[in-house]
Design a protein that fits this description.
Organism: Streptomyces shaanxiensis
Distance between the termini: 44 Å
Helix content: 40-55%
Strand order of the largest sheet: 3-2-1-4-5-6-7
Largest sheet: 7 strands, parallel
Number of helices: 6
InterPro entries: NAD(P)-bd_dom_sf, SDR_fam
Protein name: SDR family NAD(P)-dependent oxidoreductase
Shape: globular
Structural class: alpha/beta
Length: 221
């Protein structure tokens, strides 16, 4: 049995994705800053018969993130699938003309240093398995910069470039890196962007391994 590791565990998309991969037979490692949130999520997954465990870490603290992923693999088994989908903070989204160089420190740490740390933590285990999947989840500003959300637009673009390079570099090793773009809000009643629909889409990306960038729905005009 291999492990699905979710960086940015929460009650919406995170829980739905954990449930989808868990029902497929993977153990689940949930990573979040909130131990209380993790306790609730693991209890809910346990009621569905899914083996899950929480590990506290802050993606802005790369040492804690690194330690959490190593602990998850040691406790639950090798990590075959990594999903990086923490929700950016509201203060990352200042208008472009109001954004200073210092304002970019946290968004870039969140969307670049965090993913690099996570990937480097799980890659040795994936290489030992001979397979793996790296899933990156981003909003529409990753491909269409939004002048009112400068921090995330810049940081998501950098994360996209990193993920694309991983896609090309790791393909010969049977490790698939892919990105899912979610242009709109994630809502329970959304046809293409409900947590459950997106969770199934992410699982399909893992299984089918067909290309790098995927869209939950078309970008609005």
């Amino acid at each position: 049995m291999t492990t699905f590791a979710l960086v940015g565990a929460g009650p919406g998309l995170g829980l739905a994705t954990a449930r989808r991969f868990g029902t497929a037979g993977h153990t689940v490692a949930l990573i979040s800053r909130s131990a209380e949130k993790l306790d609730g999520l693991t209890a809910e997954l346990a009621r569905d018969g899914i083996q899950a465990r929480g590990f506290t870490a802050d993606v802005l603290d790369i040492e804690s993130l690194d330690a959490a992923l190593y602990a998850a693999a040691a406790a639950l088994g090798p990590i075959e699938i990594l999903q990086y989908s923490p929700v950016p903070r509201a203060d990352f989204m200042k208008p472009a003309l109001d954004t200073t160089a210092d304002d970019l420190d946290a968004p870039l740490a969140f969307s670049v240093k965090g993913p690099v740390t996570a990937v480097n933590a799980v890659l040795p285990g994936m290489r030992e398995l001979g397979r793996g999947t790296l899933l990156f989840v981003n909003g529409g500003s990753a491909v269409r910069p939004h002048p009112g959300r400068a921090g995330t637009s810049i940081a998501f673009a950098a994360e996209s470039a990193y993920a694309r390079m991983l896609h090309d570099a790791l393909a010969p090793e049977n490790i698939h890196a892919a990105q899912l773009i979610i242009p709109g809000a994630i809502r329970p009643d959304a046809e293409h962007s409900s947590p459950e629909v997106l969770a199934h889409r992410l699982y399909d990306i893992h299984v089918k391994r067909d290309g790098f960038r995927h869209y939950a729905e078309p970008l609005p005009n």
